[in-house]
Amino acid sequence: MKLNDMANAKRKLATQIESIQARLQAIEATQQTNEFNFDDSALARAKSAVNELEKRLEVKARVAEMEGNLTGAILPAVEPGRDVVKEFDTEFGHDNHKSTGKTGDKSL
Questions:
Q1: Which pLDDT tens digit goes with each residue over 49-95?
Q2: Could you give the CA distance from residue 43 to residue 106 in angstroms, rounded to a whole number?
Q3: Closest to 61 measured CA to CA, from 72, 49, 69, 73
Q4: How far apart are CA 86 and CA 82, in angstroms?
Q5: How far apart are CA 89 and CA 107, in angstroms?
Q6: Residue 91: φ, ψ to 5°
Q7: Cβ atoms 106, 96 nearer than 8 A
Q8: What pTM was estimated for this model as a whole?
Q9: DSSP string of 50-99, one letter each residue
């Protein structure tokens, strides 16, 4: 009887050892997959750079649109001999253009 008890205890211990070894292998496999740490910082920098380029492109598009609007505007032509200051003074009631002849004394 004692011999049978010893054989059963041996089988039980062998089963426990196999279970412990299987658990150890599972833990080691998990550790190996955790060792692969991906460097997300390079990806984050690339995404940030792309976003910055998109913003710059949008700003350039708006500036180009605004410049196009300004260059398409029709500006009044000023004839070379025309005295615009005198016309302004006459229109708005300021007749200081003829007062002293100094350019610094002109009022707008």
A1: 999 999 999 999 888 888 776 665 666 677 788 888 888 888 888 65
A2: 64
A3: 69
A4: 9
A5: 8
A6: -65, -40
A7: yes
A8: 0.33
A9: HHHHHHHHHHHHHHHHHHHHHHTS-PPP--TT--HHHHHHHHHT---TTS
